[in-house]
Design brief:
7 helices; alpha+beta; 207 residues; eight-stranded mixed beta sheet
Length: 207
């Protein structure tokens, strides 16, 4: 049975996953939303002004009022640097399936942070929320995202032609991936969780 738990804080080996705050706005703009290297893999165009980012962060914060809203900031333990975002969305109550998406700032690509965050959120979704299946997709010209999905146990299920149209009005073919709850639990080494702990509040996670 699908159980919505909102956006609890999560700790992994190298990361804190927490809610966004208004104070994150400038960093979000600087670290990924204003960077075309990141936005090329997103549907939305890169932000041209911090006011765009401020409005987006405001909507995210408002979303935390709903238990079905699951949207994390990805923060490095070392230096407490905010490097990206990850969320579970498009929940289907009839199937108990959902999707996952993520963005990591260019400076932190190829260091395993995205994979670590993805594994933790998938683990949380399957073990604590009772999700049946988690799906994801990536542009075919972004194979690194597919490698991340593969590392957490997801399997490519096919390719959808012209699945999205990006901010440059270009249609993109996307690879679609998925993972079932029982598949994940069988793959998990000795049934261990990818999550180190789930702190009670942000004070606990910082101290």
């Amino acid at each position: 049975m699908l159980t919505f738990l909102g956006t609890p804080m999560i700790e992994t080996k190298r990361l804190y996953l927490r809610k966004f705050t208004a104070a994150d706005t400038q960093t979000v703009f600087d670290h990924w939303l204003s960077d075309s290297r990141v936005s090329d893999n997103r549907v939305s165009a890169s932000h041209q002004s911090v006011s765009e980012t401020r409005e987006r962060v405001k909507k995210i914060i408002e979303g935390y009022q709903k238990k079905s809203f699951c949207y994390w900031a990805i923060v490095l333990k070392e230096g407490h640097t905010l490097v990206g975002e990850i969320d579970l969305y498009d929940f289907d109550r009839s199937t108990e399936n959902c999707s996952v998406s993520y963005s990591i700032g260019f400076m932190w690509w190829n260091q395993g942070y995205g994979t670590e965050a993805l594994k933790a959120i998938i683990d949380f979704g399957f073990r604590q929320m009772g999700i049946h299946k988690i799906e994801a997709a990536h542009n075919l010209d972004n194979p690194a995202s597919g490698r991340m999905m593969s590392k957490v146990g997801m399997k490519q299920e096919g390719v959808i032609k012209h699945m999205i149209r990006n901010s440059k009005n270009q249609y993109k073919d996307c690879a679609v991936w998925g993972l079932l709850q029982d598949e994940y639990l069988r793959l998990a080494v000795k049934g261990e969780s990818a999550i180190k702990r789930t702190p009670k509040d942000q004070t606990d996670i910082i101290n």
